[in-house]
Amino acid sequence: MNAEKIPDIIIGRLPVYLRAIQRMADNGIKTTSSQELGEHVGISAAQIRKDISQFGEFGKQGTGYSISYLLDKLKEILKVDRKWDVALVGAGDMGHALARYQGFTNRGFQIVMIFDNSKDKVGQKIDNFTIEDSEKMVERIKSAGIKMAMLTVPAPAAQSVADKLVQAGVRAILNYAPISLNVPNNVKVQYIDPATHLQRMTYYL
Fold first, then answer.
1. Which among 18, 23, 82, 158 counts the fewest CB atoms within 10 Å?
2. pLDDT tens by residue, 182-200
3. Model confidence over 76-125: pLDDT tens digits?
């Protein structure tokens, strides 16, 4: 299957389905229907069937989906049936919060390194992590073979840090800085800017 041919909007819905199905599995539910799943996530049953069918046939007419099977398949499709090592760049308030967040590990990710350019922060600890100097970031990330990074640096620094991450071989960046990054086509960037999401919601208030 060519990942590039699946629309990104569909890929964006898969983690929503995965989260809902995981919750069902945790509650001991064995099977579900697209109708029931749709009620959990607020997406139409027809849309769910269409999205999931892009990756093959996972359910039977009349009997629905086996939750354990669908769970395994969605994890496989999203490649979270393994652990991804993640580098975190920026040890400010947001960086501290992410380093301490317990919700990554059981969903396929683990932060393994934290970098900052502040000499005051380098050498300090956040839980089990020691903050490392971002001057050593490229060689450290490259030698560890890390492909994912989270960026929580101020906007003016974000592009130069992103350039170094690309140089280090990072292929996916979760960017918390309120700025658009210029990266090569083979590097995927996802943006998390809370103010933008708040502005999107105020339209409806």
1. 82
2. 999 999 999 998 888 899 9
3. 999 999 999 999 999 999 999 999 998 998 899 999 999 999 999 999 99
The amino acid present at 107, given as its one-letter code, is R
**Where are the domain boundaries for CATH 1.10.10.10 in the chain?**
3-77
Q: Rounded to whole angstroms, how far apart are CA atoms 76 and 85?
A: 17
Q: Is the pTM of this model over 0.85?
A: yes
Grade residue 3 by pLDDT with cuts at 50, 70 and 90: low
How far apart CA 163 and CA 6 sit, in angstroms, is 28
Which residue pairs from 180-188 have beta carbons closer than 8 angstroms and sit at least 24 positions apart in sequence?
none
Rounded Cα distance between 163 and 158, Å, is: 9
What crossing angle do the helices spanning 45-53 and 34-41 adopt, rounded to 10°?
A: 110
Please state the φ and ψ torsions of residue 150, each to the nearest 5 degrees: -115, 135
Contact 37, 51 (CB under 8 A): no
Pick the CATH number of 3-77 from 3.30.530.20, 1.10.10.10, 3.30.70.1230, 2.40.50.140: 1.10.10.10
| Geometric angle at alpha carbon 7, from 189 and 109, rounded to 5° | 45
Burial class (CB in 10 A: 0-12, 13-18, 19+), 161: buried
In this structure, what token pair is assigned to residue 107?
């969903």
* Residues 165, 173: Cα–Cα separation, whole Å: 8
Class of domain 84-197: alpha beta
Token pair 């579900």: residue: 32
